[in-house]
Amino acid sequence: MTATTPPFRDPRLPFAKRIDDLLSRLTPDEKVAFLHQYAPAVERLGVQAFRTGQEALHGVAWMGPATVFPQAVGLGATWNPDLVRRVGEAVSKEVRAMRTRDDRVGLNVWAPTVNLLRHPLWGRNEEGYSEDPKLTSAIATAYTNGLRGDHPTYWRTAPVLKHWLAHNNETDRSTSSSSVRPRVLHEYDLRAFRETVEAGAVAGVMPAYNLVNGRPNHLSPYLREQLRTWTDEELLVCSDAGAPSNLVDSEHYFDTHEEATAAALLAGVDSFTDHGTDSTKIVVRVQGALDQGLLTEADIDTAVRRQLSVRFRLGEFDGYDETGAFDTPEHRALAQEAAEQAIVLLQNDSLLPLAPDTRIAVVGLLADECKLDWYSGTLMHRSTPLEGLYERFGADRVEFAEGVDRVLLRTSAGTFLHVPAADAADEVRGAEGALDPALLAGRTDLPPLTTDATGTELALIDWGGGVLTLRAPDGRYLSVAEDGYVRASADQPGGWVVQETFHLEPHENGHLLRHLGTGHHVSVAAEGVKVAAENPEIFEVVHVERGEDAVARAAAGADVVVVVAGNDPHINGRETEDRTTLRLPEHQERLLRAARAANPRTVLTLVSAYPYAIDASPLPAVLWTAHGGQSAGTALARVLAGDVSPAARLPQTWYADDADLPDLLDYDVIGGRQTYLYFEGTPLFPFGHGLSYTSFSYADVTTRVAGEAVRVSFTVTNTGDMTADEVAQVYGHAADASMIRPRRELLGHRRVTLRPGASQELTFELPLNAFSFWDVAHGRWRLYPGPYDVLIGASSEDIRLRTTVTLDGEPATPRAVVRRGLDAADFDEQSGTEIVDRTKTSGDAVTPVGGGSGELVYRACDFGTGVTEVTMQVAGEGRAELSLDGGATLATVTLGTPTPGPYDYTTVSADITVTGVHDVHLRLRGPLRLAHVGFSG
């Protein structure tokens, strides 16, 4: 280094000193400009432009061809952190390699998603790992370690976790509020984030669109109170796209964007993702907040410092640029290994594995598909189930029937819709079969559909819920471009607004064909077929062939039928759209019934982003896999053939019926008895379930309390005749708890490979805090003293070994309500209430849902030698009625005159005479917001 080299360029100095130096050299305007997602270069200092955000959920997304690994929920199903770490390493190497040829590729990757899969109808189920926080954090930690890389100083990429916090619905996602009680917050939603951050390979988080307890996540006090206390590293908080503007535009939480921007920055948001590449609006808002005194330059410095910390760790200021690797043989092999390890055998009555000479009929809408999702990269290689079975069993032994309806659409004039032929130059696939992204948006360089006397036979693909796609014989999907014309121009349905989906609406003696992307109906004009707001065409649907007839023919002549059913990740459940039912679409159920009726030896293979409720009882074999990426078909064929024994496990509960599900917006997993932790019904398939082609025995369990941990050891033996993996799972249960605790809770797991006859001793060091719970009475974690069941087995319900360990802990003590009072949200039980924001910056209050009535229960409240007055901090209007132990009302406080606003609290009181320890019941009536209850004597 020379004497003129600025300290921020000196790699011998600690990052903190270098950041201080660079920060001191930036002008106020330059620092403000850094707050937008697209931070500009500072040429006078040689500082490059920087962009936060590169999607890399299961491969590099949106930047062209890349290795496509199984969806995140499929990676979660592997229960294999080592595998997922290697996937993360491969993805990070491809990020670096792609960046060398395209500087739009960013090194700040927005992955993984650690939102818990609480509700299986969530449209983004495919993006999470599990409903369990322990499994989620284990897989997320592995992926972030892979993304970070193994250099002692510099990070290969900088992972940002999505989406902070309690985000599990797409319906009204930017205006709905998740009511999360403290126990659920600490034991469930925060836990997956915490354990991943504490592992040390996380660069930051992204707040979610929704509100939590009435407050937008982009203002979450938990960013300060929780997240930033978990690590000594500076964490970068990146807003979700458009969310800063939502604070005013859709949520109406603030009146001005200056107020909203200042509040988000002060809460901890460091980078604003808003208005695409146009940073001017954010810059103006920040400058306006500074001018109004809502922010100081020190506030700006804090956010910029966090950004610079990430950039220094990436090696930007030291010329560090790790050589990446792209589409290597190792990455292709890893994609296949991951796809194989993600396949769950749900049911098997000795039908699988298939013999080499089996004649197979492979049928169904997903049988010859390799589907992508919104966060996939572009395929360079692909393998569908059909292609995989051809390769493994031979094309002469495999017959295919997709099972779609073949139709002609007759117009009111008696003509038929006609698809013009595509020129050779308009082939829908590029080099090596890679998908052309331009095809996903609807092209305008192809001729629109017309009509003629004979028409073109179309594949009508019914995805359920009234949603269908139409495909020409050459594989092109009907799509609508910006000019409104209908063309056969898309290789697959896709895009942020899908332009390839339609709905048939009965009308008079035929049907109207409504295009879902625009909401307009299809019409026929002299210049071509288009969608328009007027003159809709009335079509007659002429069936050339029913899909179930083709399936039945293929099934009847086969030894075994493989029905491949599931979803298209862009349709009926995706970002912005939740599902409405667990059921398979009716058309796919008809195909399954047709196959089974023609041939009882039917294997159902579900390829989907989420669980289904199916009638599995008459099926000899059922498998599930998430969309498995580029090697999905090869992996499935190898599992069906027995080249690989399936060993994946369900990362979430599969419920038997929609009636088993809570309301989508009910985030109280404890009160609502949700997930395997609390669900009291009988699942279709339980959490952790998955079968094998061999068998395993468990024996010789021992437990010992050693210091701050419980050591659990046992032996697993492969008692079958083929080498296979087993996923051993350890669960805990508080056997004598005085409050609701999980039925069982995952404490550890390990995936091991064992040869026939081989045994392995597994040992788990379980920290004592894994057995603790959040004590709402005292606002902290507490280990309850007493017996704990340790349950060991192959799933949450397939328990092979049981033992009990007695732990010392802190006995329960009554709530000291005379000294501390009761924070309203610290209830033990509730009905008919929701938690809301006490103020716009911090704290919680409780109010009846919809301004009706609700009840709060606080157990074991100690009034000592006696109190004579109860006081309540309330806002709004209504009344609160207090009783003890469920008895008669002892005191009522009324707020008859509404307070000026929801945050204008006042104190009301009533006389009361109470001594000793009692359960306090508070009944809230009307739109009353209760913040705190105090007692005095």
From TrEMBL:
Superkingdom: Bacteria
SMART domains: CBD_IV (SM00606), Fn3_like (SM01217)
GO molecular function (one): alpha-L-arabinofuranosidase activity
The name this protein goes by in its record: Exo-alpha-(1->6)-L-arabinopyranosidase
Lipid biosynthesis among keywords: no
GO BP: arabinan catabolic process; xylan catabolic process
Organism: Streptomyces spinoverrucosus
Similarity comment text for this entry: Belongs to the glycosyl hydrolase 3 family.
SUPFAM superfamilies assigned to the protein according to its UniProt record, in alphabetical order: (Trans)glycosidases (SSF51445), Actin-crosslinking proteins (SSF50405), Beta-D-glucan exohydrolase, C-terminal domain (SSF52279), Galactose-binding domain-like (SSF49785)
Keyword Signal belongs to the record: yes
Job of this protein: Catalyzes the hydrolysis of a non-reducing terminal alpha-L-arabinopyranosidic linkage in ginsenoside Rb2 (alpha-L-arabinopyranosyl-(1->6)-alpha-D-glucopyranosyl) to release alpha-D-glucopyranosyl (Rd). It is not able to hydrolyze alpha-L-arabinofuranosyl-(1->6)-alpha-D-glucopyranosyl (Rc).
Domain CBM6: from-to ranges: 820-936
InterPro entries assigned to the protein according to its UniProt record, in alphabetical order: Actin-crosslinking, BXL, CBM6, Cellulose-bd_IV, Fn3-like, Galactose-bd-like_sf, GH, Glyco_hydro_3_C
Key words of the record: Hydrolase, Signal
